[in-house]
């Protein structure tokens, strides 16, 4: 199990949230950053009280972790990820955009700065430049890959919490572009479409599980990796997801072993956007969105509630490596070792993938790729 308790908690939350999203859109490409969502919600949790705090703790799976524990372990995790790997670019940034006329609790602001490294910005809801300022911040923090997270800032918004993650890493062993070729990729409906598949062979960390194959593809430096899980031809992505959970994930992580083989992986690029309100309510967090939400630890004499949780991601996987970015925005409104048998893994049908920090166990991104584009 991961040493940092917040990693264990966020991993459990990641797979529950992912299951909700896949259940709602089983035939869609889905790519999310559970780390970004969890960090944004952890900032809000710091200011929650009463039933709202209990509901958020249940949805996030915090168990016995209190706000102090969450904040402390978040700071430790961010510090560890700062040193993740000098050969990859990984940046995590948060910001708190405060509206006019709301007096925020000094402790909440201090915790945001100290525990989550949140930048404190002034927000002018309804102002012509408000959305532009927020989007400019997002664009800077995501390497220009996500240019917009808000269309406009509603005058009712008193606080906007944002987390952004940007990742860019080269494969430890790059794919040779000369070996990339058009091959048929089987879609969920049985159709087959030609798509570029990158190929290479050699020694890999590999796992032949029950009903699937899995391979670890490390990035330069070796600490961060992409894990690709391919259901067997006789199985399906739906059957794989029925087995996917934080418990099975942790079990599988310990079963990879060195094997010689070959892999063919689709080159793909996609953007994904989702409103997480319904999924988070289904996980038990409805109290945070209702008129009776209690975020009195944020502001004095005000009734704040979460208006929405908006999540947007970008990912591009190619011969050189991977570039990925994510933003989570939560506007708050007043209201109420020895080679084994050689394997072959041709990823020519829908698959699951995740980008993981192998030292802390933190899952930074995960995706369901049913039709690479």
Q: Could you explain the architecture of this structure?
A:
The protein has helices at 5-24, 34-46, 50-60, 67-82, 106-116, 130-141, 237-243, 246-253, 277-285; strands spanning 30-32, 89-98, 118-122, 157-170, 181-186, 192-209, 212-218, 224-231, 257-266, 268-275, 304-306, 310-317, 321-334, 340-346, 351-357, 363-369. The protein has nine helices and 16 strands. The model has no long low-confidence stretch (mean pLDDT 92). α1 packs across α9 (277-285), α3 (50-60) packs across α9 (277-285) and α4 packs parallel to α5 (106-116). Helix content is 29%, strand content 36%. It has 373 residues and is of the alpha+beta class. The chain is elongated, with a radius of gyration of 21 Å. Strands 1, 5, 6, 7, 8, 9, 14, 15 and 16 form a nine-stranded mixed β-sheet that branches. A hairpin with a 5-residue loop joins β7 (212-218) and β8.
Helices and strands in order, then pairings?
Elements: H1 5-24, E1 30-32, H2 34-46, H3 50-60, H4 67-82, E2 89-98, H5 106-116, E3 118-122, H6 130-141, E4 157-170, E5 181-186, E6 192-209, E7 212-218, E8 224-231, H7 237-243, H8 246-253, E9 257-266, E10 268-275, H9 277-285, E11 304-306, E12 310-317, E13 321-334, E14 340-346, E15 351-357, E16 363-369
Helix pairs in contact: 1-9, 2-3, 2-4, 3-9, 4-5
């Amino acid at each position: 199990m991961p040493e940092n308790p917040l990693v264990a908690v966020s991993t459990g939350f990641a797979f529950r949230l992912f299951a909700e999203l896949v259940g709602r859109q089983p035939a869609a490409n889905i790519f999310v950053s559970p780390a970004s969502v969890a960090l944004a919600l952890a900032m809000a949790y710091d200011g929650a009280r009463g039933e709202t705090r209990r509901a958020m703790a249940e949805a996030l799976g915090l168990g016995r972790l209190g706000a102090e524990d969450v904040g402390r372990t978040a700071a430790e995790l961010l510090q560890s990820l700062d040193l993740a790997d000098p050969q990859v670019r990984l940046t995590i940034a948060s910001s708190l955009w405060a509206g006019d006329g709301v007096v925020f609790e000094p402790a909440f602001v201090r915790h945001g700065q100290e525990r989550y490294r949140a930048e404190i910005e002034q927000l002018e809801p309804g102002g012509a430049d408000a959305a532009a300022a927020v989007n400019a911040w997002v664009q800077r923090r995501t390497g220009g890959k996500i240019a917009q997270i808000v269309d406009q800032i509603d005058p009712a918004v008193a606080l906007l919490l944002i987390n952004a993650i940007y990742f860019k890493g080269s494969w430890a062993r790059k794919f040779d572009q000369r070996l990339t070729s058009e091959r048929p990729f089987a879609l969920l409906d049985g159709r087959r479409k030609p798509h570029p598949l990158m190929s290479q062979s050699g020694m890999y960390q590999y796992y032949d599980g029950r009903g699937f194959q899995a391979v670890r593809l490390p990035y330069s430096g070796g600490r961060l990796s992409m894990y690709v899980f391919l259901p067997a031809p006789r199985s399906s992505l739906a059957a794989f997801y029925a087995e996917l959970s934080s418990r099975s994930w942790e079990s599988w992580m310990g079963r990879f072993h060195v094997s010689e083989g070959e892999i063919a992986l689709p080159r793909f690029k996609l953007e994904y956007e989702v409103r997480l309100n319904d999924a988070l309510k289904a996980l038990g967090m409805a109290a945070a969105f209702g008129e009776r939400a209690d975020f009195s630890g944020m502001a004095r004499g005000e009734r704040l509630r979460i208006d929405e949780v908006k999540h947007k991601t970008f990912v591009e996987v190619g011969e050189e490596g991977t570039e990925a970015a994510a933003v989570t925005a939560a506007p708050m409104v007043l209201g109420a070792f020895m080679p084994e048998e050689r394997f072959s893994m041709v990823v020519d049908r829908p698959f699951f993938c995740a980008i993981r920090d192998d030292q802390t166990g933190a899952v930074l991104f995960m995706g369901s790729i049913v039709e690479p584009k």
